[in-house]
Amino acid sequence: MNLSRKAYNLIREEIITCILSPGQQINQGEIAKKLQMGITPVREALTRLAHEGLVTVLPRYGYLVSPITLTDLNELFEYRVILETAAVKMAAQKASDQQILALLAMADFTYHYKEIQDHTKFLNRNAQFHSAVATLANNRRLSESLSSVLDELTRFFHIGLNLRDSADEMRTEHMDLARALQERDESKAEDIVRRQIDRSRQRIIEALQTNNAQSSSAEVTVT
Q1: Is 44 a residue whose pLDDT tops 90?
Q2: Which of 49, 92, 118, 148 is placed for a possible disulfide with 54 were both Cys, Cβ 3.0 to 4.6 Å?
Q3: CATH architecture of structural domain 70-214
Q4: Is 203:191 a contact under the CB 8 Å cutoff?
């Protein structure tokens, strides 16, 4: 792996997990020193992250981690509802019994509150679970679109997990959804997904508002 790619992966991970906070200015020299590499690969990595929207370029000042806004949140969650409700209804119709049994096994996972590395592992498994549901819909474009939305939401999810311990609640949501699909109950599955998505959205909004109240420098922007 070349240095630019290595710098990209490491910086992106710190942005996604909010180690580098939304709105935080990025010091290229400090990052280069931390990663034990020169400025050039760090600059190349930041340029790539800027194209992805995770970093904002400040002319004459460098870069900052792109702020998180309620507009972003609402647009992504609106799109997620459209995709995932369609996916679970199609999965209830098309998935084989064997596939749903495998999904039930996938649904049984959780995390330890306030352990950031464990949050990351949990969110990876969470994305795999929801992508698996979409895969059971047997529609490649739908599955790819949902995976893309979940990837964009990862930074939001990290903020929500830090608010309070929701491990048991989220595990139950996943198990309930898998069981509804096993019962071939499209309406129940859709209702579970809608309630799950709404709770996730509300949890993130609460976390953003809490962060704003605690930070006079407005590191997280709610607009």
Answers
A1: yes
A2: 49
A3: Up-down Bundle (1.20)
A4: no
User: Which two three-digit tokens encode residue 5?
Assistant: 């790619």
Reduced to 3 states (helix: H, G, I; strand: E, B; else coil), residue 137 is coil
Distance CA 80, CA 50 (A): 24
Phi, psi of 184 (to 5 degrees): 60, 35
The pLDDT of residue 1: 61
Instruction: Give the three-class secondary structure for 38.
Output: coil
C-alpha distances in Å from residue 74, one per residue of 80, 161, 205, 209: 10, 18, 10, 15
**3-65 fold:** Arc Repressor Mutant, subunit A (1.10.10)
The three-state DSSP-derived secondary structure of 45-103 is HHHHHHHCCCEEEECCCEEEECCCCHHHHHHHHHHHHHHHHHHHHHHHHHCCHHHHHHH
User: What are the E-state strand segments in the chain?
Assistant: 25-26, 55-58, 62-65
Query: Which residues are bridge partners to 58 per DSSP?
Result: 62
User: Which residue intervals of the chain bear CATH 1.20.120.530?
Assistant: 70-214
How many angstroms separate the CA atoms of 41 and 133, rounded?
A: 38
- CB-hemisphere CA count at 13 Å for 12? 18
Lowest mean pLDDT among 99-103, 129-133, 208-212: 208-212
